[in-house]
Write a structure and sequence with these properties.
CATH superfamily of the largest domain: Alpha/Beta hydrolase fold, catalytic domain
Strand content: 5-15%
CATH topology of the largest domain: Rossmann fold
Structural class: alpha/beta
CATH architecture of the largest domain: 3-Layer(aba) Sandwich
Radius of gyration: 24 Å
CATH class of the largest domain: Alpha Beta
Strand order of the largest sheet: 1-2-4-3-5-6-7-8
Distance between the termini: 54 Å
Shape: globular
Order of helices and strands: HEEEHEHEHEEHEHHHHHHHHHHH
Helix content: 40-55%
Number of helices: 16
Length: 489
């Protein structure tokens, strides 16, 4: 047995345990309650043994969840606030349809729930929301001016703000999300401009978080602290807190440790399986041309198919997911075109299928076990679980084609394929956005493609079976789509 592999496995297991310790200790001194009111899943976080402390409602954005906003929840709770987070309809663990007025209804349910908590001073309440949630909290602050003492809008969308409503409005936007910076500037102007008169509820402030875009702003300490300081100034809170939310760092270390463990286990095996490519140089050359040619052609055909589908129905709700269904269909069509151009495919075996399922299980744990308590509603509710096989099946051709294309390649060429797929995916979906602007949310996912494809490429380099790689990757990618995107009505 490979001694280095054993040492790597032991080190990986220790890092996994250490990462869990880091995430668990982040809740030290905090009280956590899981609630459900009128079908709205909620998460309540507050300091232990607290009495009559200010309460904060925290709302996520489109395709988000209560877990995605936990960075604010932990920072505020450690600073002496009681925080209520929830899943809007069709998001996270909430299976109810997203309809007109449902955002306000969900917020009202969360408002009633936070008033029930014994630690909360009902006369001192505030709100914080991101993107879609920012519009919801600003609107609630306008409709109920005297109910909430302050509102924090992160990556703000729009609302009919005035110099008087909502009270004490802080606007935040990342320096890398230009459109939302513009929205924030327009809102600030409509709200009367910068103002330090928090005592009268006229406080107004715009904070631009450096080097942050629409998603990463949620994990930036600068954003967390700006929100905390604004609420402290509103409520006159003097309690000092040096807590910095580092749970995402622990999450990435946990993910890397599992990938290292996967590599260690693979290297312990004498035979990890090999692709059966031809040894003839000329055949390999023409095979490579077909592989790259198929990859280049695929996004144009897939984007065209989405355009045709948009003419016969709502492209947003394909496959039972808002936007996510269209993404999976694009992957499926692009993969079929890529396979057709390469015109070669090995036969699956029970062994390769078994390895593919095992690969999925390992990657599922590596990617999602900690995500459930850090940033993503990873456990699928029944409405999402039944969509998972269909979404995975739709994505399968892409990963099968990817496996065929990388048949028997070395490390250098595998890196080239990772780069090529990342560029094609980003470019292909930019084309989709140009043709179908109604799918604009896809633009926020583009930075994630290189990371996801990188993880899959690494896994395929360890277990060199085309069908195993394709099955494991498609199942995990399908799970990610099923977990992240809102349910269609």
């Amino acid at each position: 047995m490979n001694r280095n592999a054993v040492l790597l496995a032991v080190a990986a297991l220790l890092l996994i345990a250490f990462s869990w310790w880091g995430v668990i200790t982040a809740q030290t001194g905090l009280l956590v309650r899981h609630l459900n009111r009128e079908g709205v899943p909620m998460l309540y976080v507050a300091p232990r043994n607290a009495e009559k402390i200010p309460g904060v409602l925290v709302a996520h954005g489109y395709a988000g969840s209560k877990q995605l906003m936990l960075g604010y929840g932990h920072v505020l709770a450690h600073a002496g606030y009681a925080v209520m987070l929830w899943d809007f309809n069709s998001h996270g663990a909430n299976a109810k349809p997203l309809e007109r007025g449902s955002l306000q209804q969900n917020l009202d349910v969360a408002y009633a729930a936070i008033l029930e908590q014994p630690e909360v001073d009902s006369s001192r309440l505030a709100m914080l929301g991101h993107s879609m949630g920012s519009g919801a909290v600003m609107s609630a602050g306008i409709q109920n001016v005297n109910r909430f003492a302050a509102t924090v809008a992160v990556s703000p969308t729009g609302a009919a703000v005035t110099p008087k409503a909502p009270r004490n409005l802080q606007l935040q936007a990342g320096s890398w999300e230009g459109g939302f910076v513009g929205n924030a500037q327009r809102l600030l102007k409509a709200a009367g401009g910068e103002n330090e008169n928090l005592a009268a509820g006229r406080g107004r402030e715009l904070v631009v978080i450096p080097n942050a875009e629409h998603i990463t702003i949620l994990f930036r300490n600068a954003s967390h602290q700006a929100a905390k300081n604004w609420l402290d100034a509103t409520f006159g809170v003097q309690r000092n807190s040096d807590y910095v939310d580092r749970r995402m760092i622990w999450y990435f270390l946990h993910l890397l440790a599992w990938l290292a463990l996967l590599g260690a286990v693979a290297s312990m095996k004498e035979d990890t399986g090999k692709f059966s490519a031809s040894s003839k140089t000329s055949l390999r050359f023409f095979s490579g041309l077909r592989s790259w040619g198929g990859l280049l052609i695929a996004p144009f055909v897939a984007s065209g198919v989405l355009v045709l589908l948009s003419r016969s129905g709502d492209i947003n709700s394909l496959g039972g997911l808002l936007v996510g269904g269209a993404v999976s269909i694009w992957f499926g069509v692009a993969g079929l075109v890529w396979l057709a151009v390469m015109f070669r495919l090995p036969r699956p075996t029970l062994r390769t299928i078994g390895l593919g399922i095992a690969l999925f299980v390992v990657l599922w744990i590596a990617f999602g076990a900690m995500a459930q308590v850090v940033w993503l509603q990873w456990w699928l509710i029944p409405a999402r679980l039944k969509l998972f096989p269909l979404i995975s099946l739709a994505c399968f051709p892409w990963f099968l084609a990817s496996g065929v294309a990388q048949q028997d390649v070395g490390v250098g060429k595998r890196i080239l394929w990772w780069l090529g797929q990342s560029v094609i995916l980003i470019g292909g979906f930019i084309l989709v956005l140009y043709l179908l602007p109604e799918l604009s949310f896809i633009s926020l996912l583009l930075p994630l493609f290189p990371l996801i494809i990188g993880i899959f490429s690494y896994a395929s380099s360890l277990y060199k079976e085309i069908w195993s790689y394709a099955l494991g990757s498609a199942l995990l990618f399908g799970w990610i789509l099923a977990a992240a995107f809102p349910l269609a009505s």
